[in-house]
Amino acid sequence: MSQDELSRQIGRRSGQVIFAIAFLALSALLLSQIGDQTKWVKKTKFFAQPRFWPAVGLGGMVLFGALHLWHLPRRKLDRFDRNEVMIWAQVLEYALWFMAYVMLVPLVGYLPVTVVFMPLMVWRMGYSDRRLLWISAGLGIVIVLLFKSLLNVKIPGAALYEYLPGAMRGFFILNF
Amino acid sequence: MDLLLSGLDILARWDVVLALLTGSVGGVLIGAIPGVGPAVAIAILLPATFSMDPIVGLTVLLGIYGSSMYGGAIPAILINTPGTAVNALTTYDGFPMTTRGEARRAISLAYSASFFGGIFSVICLMLFSPVLAKVAPMFGSREIFLAALLGIILVVTAHRRQTLIAAALACFGIFINTIGLEPVKYSKRYTFDQSFLSGGIDLIVVVLGLFALSQAFFLLQGEDEKTRINRLKGGLFQGLRELARHPRVAGVSASFGVLMGMIPGVGEFTAQFMSYTYAQKTSKRPEDFGHGSSEGLIAAETANNAVPAAAMVPLLALGIPGEALTAMMLSVFYVHNVVPGPQLFQNQMDFVVALYLALLILNVMVLVFLLFATNQLIKVVKIPNRFLGVAILTLSFVGVYSLRNSVTDCVIAALFGVLGFILKRLSLPIVPIILGMVLGGIMEVKLRAGMARVKTFPDFFMDGRGDDASLRPIAVILFLLIIAVLALHVRRAWADHKELKEAKWSTKHSSTHIGAQLSRRRSFILAERGKKRRAERSMLSRRSTDKS
């Protein structure tokens, strides 16, 4: 490793080794399963084999992934790499928020969940300004009206709407 | 002329006009907000456009694609933060102009240059269309396979100093595309007996994860930036007059934009780099570049806005997208059973002309909108980053969930979102994954079809057999181009390697060698001496404890 090599690297240095190792390990693991997960069909041309393109993809992943790892200016792990992985892990919280939103929409309804989710998430991000919380709730309503009511995007009516009386039930299922 | 009229006829519908208006104004707004960008917006809106007519849906997406760069110039000039990635070069000369009190001049010049670039490229393509219509049918399965292969190689080699990981990620895209039930022999590939993997991984789910969700995570994880923007006083028409004083720079930059846009995988950055270098080399005041040069600003903005129209050429004529945004648009075509490629140019030329006309009209609409609404528009720059992140997260749900109402799709999108976030943190390229997926699918189908009657390697470039055999010129040209691109890349990589080695040796003079040798010798002697001393002490201590 030299200073020139380090200065030529694009982007942050911490985390590069971990990503390269994980990518290579996953690629090698998937490639090792190729016999099990794909078929070699008799009396079929080489380029038409079902195994051909997965082999190209995985072979390339292993080859270029290994070369990338070998080409990295620093291949030892240090505490900065660990810190970087912790930052990656922090993002899982937002992924969980997103999944909670996804799970709740078919149960409670697109409009109510969005109107609650947006201000809640804004509050979680550290904004306590009431005006911003109201704006986020308003934006939630606009998003639902635009996509579900106006553009008729395919989002099913919620299970909770089934308990609404008479015509309101159909109206809510169709529009919100 | 008839084609023009029939193209206009396709556009003369209220829903198309509304789509043009929404796309162009929306695109400018999205471009002006740093951290959103056209890729995020197009990814989110894709499923919504599936229920529309192909021309309406494509007009919205084209509107966003073609107008976002106009909007992206605003924060680039006013606060030194590019609104979209391709406006990065605009900051070089735009922001110094703002610091010396010429913000209005810079903004006006950027609009005028973008407008010229956009109009120039559309007119060029309309003039080229008859030629393209003649050339496109010469592309059979083998030529399209080679063009897709060339596209993927160009995308990989365009990532200088990151070629290896770009290649690995492109292969990752090719692999993802193979997951699921294989359509010819009906065998399962990498499904691990999971039913949700049998149908394969949808391109749009991956696109939404890698572009929209990852951007939301990136913004949520980051911090807000404080921005101060002053109102622009006076009109913005002066830029058109100033642009007229630099016809050479504008013309050459727009031509670079058209040429680079047409080549898959090359795009805006190369076009901008080439036109900026040209403008600097031929300028009477090259020292002004990077310090607020109007020619630099014209070169950057004209080149980047000439690309969107040109990038539609490989997509429409061959069905090969050259970058992520056109790859997303390809899915709109597929959903409506409109297959872009030579057949489209032969049978539905009016549709192609309508798309070009839509691009032409949208450039005029955007310019008029910006000339009058810039002062209101610049307020969007102040939206806090994390608030934007929440909005993108909420909007991403619409995109993913409305596809098939599948929770599994959302989980896959979230996983790709995390992967995209990691790639963004490490500044690794995302686009090769998407192009690997799209071009990998095209290559698989076309190679299978193309190799059906091929026995030996030379047969690949021939039609027929024996005395009736004739050469396929396009296939030969494409093959030679692939060899040339690879050879050039190897040459460049070798030159880089040599340069690095020279730099290493120039800082490593002979005294450091002697120093290192002395240091190693000293460590060895100390270690040996240490061993001897320890041995002596251990013997001594043994003697002292041995009482027998």
Automatic annotation (TrEMBL), chain A:
Transmembrane segments: 17-35, 55-73, 94-120, 132-151
Keywords: Membrane, Transmembrane, Transmembrane helix
Keyword Protease: no
InterPro entries to which the protein is assigned, alphabetical: DUF1468
Family annotation (Pfam families): TctB
UniProt KW Transmembrane helix keyword: yes
Domain annotation DUF1468: ranges: 18-156
Coiled-coil ranges (or none): none
Name the UniProt record assigns to this protein: Tripartite tricarboxylate transporter TctB family protein
TrEMBL record, chain B:
Cited InterPro entries: DUF112_TM (IPR002823)
TM regions (residue ranges): 12-33, 109-133, 139-157, 164-181, 201-220, 315-339, 351-371, 383-400, 406-423, 469-490
Annotated DUF112 domain residues: 18-435
Keyword vocabulary terms for this entry: Membrane, Transmembrane, Transmembrane helix
PANTHER family from the UniProt entry: TRICARBOXYLIC TRANSPORT PROTEIN (PTHR35342:SF5)
Protein name: DUF112 domain-containing protein
